[in-house]
Write a structure and sequence with these properties.
- This protein is an alpha/beta fold.
- The chain has one domain (about 5-345): NAD(P)-binding Rossmann-like Domain (Rossmann fold), CATH 3.40.50.
- It is about 40% helix and about 15% strand.
- The chain is built from 11 helices and 13 strands.
- The structure holds UDP-4-deoxy-4-formamido-beta-L-arabinopyranose.
- UDP-4-deoxy-4-formamido-beta-L-arabinopyranose binds near residues 200, 217, 219, 233 and 297.
Length: about 350
């Protein structure tokens, strides 16, 4: 059974991907320093799959500690790299922290991949690399434009580093997966998104407002040139994103002769405005959301959504969850967190 190393395995997309890998016959270990996650995800993965996975609490910026994980697991046949900081606004405020964490972590990891001649590498990238696209939907051939934030710049540089490394004989092949807006939670509600501090992203802001954790939320701008004035995004369920990673690994294994670095958009192909997302949530949850219109947020792109034909045709990716399910599972997860917090308080 192929052993896969998932970095950031205690995180939102990493934990959901581990579930999908385990359910599809892979064995998995994780490296996660838990600076932006908790080990709670490991127990959630076990509750869903019945399988234990080992997380090495290691910071990828520490090369020796990262190398030691590979020395202890010489049967790793593939790596999926999620571990990185990803808050657009925070990256504008703290660029050096983002460049240091995201780039040194990736380079140390690739040096270990080289040392142990690991053939397959999947890199967690982002639609952020497209910046403000000239035309939508964006395909994988749409131009990569100047990053709107240091976070986006680290994803663009990360893609270049992986692509350049794939050209050497150090690694057989790689896949870059460009996520659009991952949202929702596993239907079991044993794992989900657990933002540290005030949520930066739309859906956790919606669910935390609805559950009463936040008194209200802001809609950053309703004066954009879109059908209702709010920004358009391509929301995609985290379980669909997870599935695509398993398919990407399988694709690399099935195409052993490939020595390329292929790129795939992971989006639903549907553009939805912020206000439409809020109204969908209200319909699904029955909760009237307390929001107000605020000024535009620096760094936001007006509209972006994916052409996902390549992932569908090449990887055999089938999207299973629609926006209603995204909101329903996100809400179920938020209610689960609330119930757990109330249980702790009552004890
Ligand atoms: C979406 C829309 C906000 C919060 C994300 C990730 C990034 C990358 C791309 C994966 C915007 C609006 C938000 C709020 C709001 N994903 N909004 N009120 O900026 O598209 O980027 O997807 O790598 O990592 O950050 O997502 O959810 O922050 O914003 O009005 O309280 O919702 O202005 O229009 P974004 P987001």
């Amino acid at each position: 059974m192929a052993k896969i190393l998932v970095t950031g395995g205690c995180g939102y997309i990493g934990s959901h991907t581990i579930v999908d890998l385990l359910e599809n016959g892979f064995s998995v270990i994780s490296i996660d320093d838990n600076s932006r996650s908790t080990a709670y995800a490991v127990s959630g993965i076990e509750q869903i799959t019945g399988k234990k996975i080992k997380n090495y609490k290691v910071d990828l910026k520490n090369f020796d500690e990262t190398l030691a994980v590979f020395q202890e697991n010489e049967d790793i046949s593939g790596v999926i790299h999620f571990a990185a900081y990803k808050a657009v606004g925070e990256s504008v405020a703290e660029p050096l922290r983002y460049y240091e964490n995201n780039m040194i972590g990736l380079i140390n990891l690739l040096k270990c991949v080289q040392e142990f001649d690991i053939p397959y590498f999947v890199f967690s990238s982002s639609c952020t690399v497209y910046g403000n696209p000239d035309s939508i939907p964006v395909t994988e051939l749409s131009p990569v434009k100047k990053a709107e934030s240091p976070y986006g710049a680290t994803k663009q540089m990360g893609e270049e580093i992986v692509a350049d490394y794939t050209k050497t004989d150090g690694m057989r092949a790689a896949i870059l997966l460009r996520y659009f807006n991952p949202v929702g939670a596993h239907p079991s509600a044993f794992i989900g998104e657990s933002p540290v501090g005030k949520p930066q992203n739309l859906v956790p802001a919606i669910t935390q407002t609805a559950v009463g954790k936040l008194p209200k939320m802001m809609v950053f701008g309703d004066d954009y040139p879109t059908r209702d004035g709010s920004c358009i995004r391509d929301y995609i369920h985290v379980c669909d994103i997870a599935r695509a990673h398993t398919l990407a690994l399988q694709y690399l294994v099935d195409n052993k002769n490939k020595t390329t670095c292929d790129i795939f958009n992971l989006g639903s192909g549907n553009g939805i405005t912020v206000l439409e997302a809020i109204h969908t949530f209200e319909e699904v949850s029955g909760v009237k959301l307390n929001y107000e219109i605020a000024p535009r947020r620096p760094g936001d792109v007006v509209a972006i959504y994916a052409n996902n034909d390549a992932a569908v045709s090449e990887l055999g990716w089938e999207i299973k969850y629609d926006i209603t399910e995204m909101m329903r599972t996100a809400w179920a997860w938020e209610l689960k967190i609330k119930a757990a917090e109330e249980k702790v308080k009552s004890n």
